[in-house]
Amino acid sequence: MLKIGKKAPDFELLDQNGVMHKLSNYNKTVILYFYPKDDTPGCTKEACNFRDDFSKYKKQGVTIFGMSGDSIEKHKKFSEKYSLPFILLSDPEKSTIKKYGAFGEKKFMGRSFQGIKRMTYVIKKGIIKHVFEKVKVKEHSDEILRLI
Predict the structure, then answer these.
(1) How deeply is 140 buried, as exposed, middle or buried, from its count of CB atoms within 10 A (0-12, 13-18, 19+)?
(2) How far apart are CA 11 and CA 45, in angstroms?
(3) pTM strictly above 0.90
(4) CA dist., res. 78 & res. 88, Å (int)
(5) CB proximity list for 78: less than 8 A, separation 6 or greater
(6) Mean pLDDT across the stretch 50-58?
(7) Which of 47, 48, 112, 136 has the fewest CB atoms within 10 Å around its CB?
(8) Does domain 12-147 sit in CATH 3.40.30.10?
């Protein structure tokens, strides 16, 4: 995990439409949330909550980036299936995911494995302002909106 007050690592990744996004090109507030996999129950709930609150973020000039290791094609299907109005970034090599400390040991049903952790960074003008390490998908969007 990266520290609050530090510069967020820059990245250049493709979204669900094949458009390149570079973090340093976004000067306002960015919500960068990491999630394990498209179209799974928890990830779908989290994405749909961001979708349902999207107008509130837009009003404040906030950009939302969801990021996982899924392909551009999977992101496109996921985005279209649930009418997601925000950017889903594809990081199949997980290089950016690892830079942000969002990859590592996870536990599920008594066993440990390596995978993408569900966590969120609030970044303002390139600086990390808040980190959510423990995300409850149903409440997460509300939690972020209260913060910003």
Answers:
(1) buried
(2) 26
(3) yes
(4) 9
(5) 16, 38, 39, 44, 47, 70, 84, 88
(6) 97
(7) 112
(8) yes
Of the chain, the percentage scoring pLDDT greater than 90 comes to: 86
Rounded CA gap, 30 and 48, in Å? Answer: 18
CB 126 within 8 A of CB 8: yes
pLDDT at 134 over 90: no
Residue 138 burial by Cβ neighbours in a 10 Å radius (0-12, 13-18, 19+): exposed
Find residue 20's DSSP bridge partners. Answer: 14
Residue 43 known to be catalytic:
yes
Count CB-CB contacts under 10 A for residue 94: 17
Cα–Cα distance between 142 and 148 in angstroms, integer?
A: 10
For residue range 5-17, list pLDDT tens digits in order: 999 999 999 999 9
Catalytic residue, candidates 8, 23, 31, 43: 43
